[in-house]
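Z., the sequence and structure:
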Amino acid sequence: MARPFNLRWLLPAVCGDDIRLWWWAWSLSWPVLAGGTFWWASALVGGWQVPAAAAALTVALPGVWGPHVVRPIGVDLPAMALSALAAAFWVNGYEPIAIVLALQAAAVKESAPVWIALWCWSPVPLVALVAPAVAWLVRRPEMDPVTAQRTLLRVHDHPFRSSLEHHKGQWRDGWVMVAPWGVCLAALVSPSWPVVLVLVVAYAQLLVATDTTRLVQTAAGPVVALAAAQTIPVEWLLLAVVVHAVWWWRVHFQ
């Protein structure tokens, strides 16, 4: 497989060519993501209303749903679910279990430890980057038939240039860069440093990638959702979740 797909070996090893297993992995990721986000948020802020709203806001993000081409054969949602569970174990004091989960998440998508570290506000989960490092040594990248197609090959060979071309005219397009966050934009009211940093790093991905919403929201979603849930008055949380969970415009899934 071409880079970086040669680093994402765990799901292909488990699911292979069985589409039913891929659907199981995709479907089970939703309750794992919701439960992990709730447990993680509960440890950080206490209570149940705000954590429940944070979990609901996270799973309702259009970037988490993703475009049809990644359903069910995609790594973003399963990696995000494992990352949320790892972060939950970490902030609740079960660091060894968190590291094991972070290693699994890194074998699903190589960038997962970065987001776990940002969600936990600790550099220690970055040790799980050893998983993609070992995979890089063991599974050398090879061009595959899909990536060899003309368009994808250009993205593979020239990621920065392809990103600039794809995002031309989009950098200040609010419907692409801002609107997909929905109610989570409330997180920008007096944002904390963790919120600012995770958003900066998440959007920095766009400099070397042609996708937008999917990458940004699977990276920063839980942190932004929790910050938004903390900003919105508790008595308004249910309404906020309802307004957030439906799409009022043509959503930019990519």
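DSSP finds 14 helices and no strands in the chain. The CA atoms of residues 39 and 88 lie 6 Å apart.

Let me know what you think.
H.
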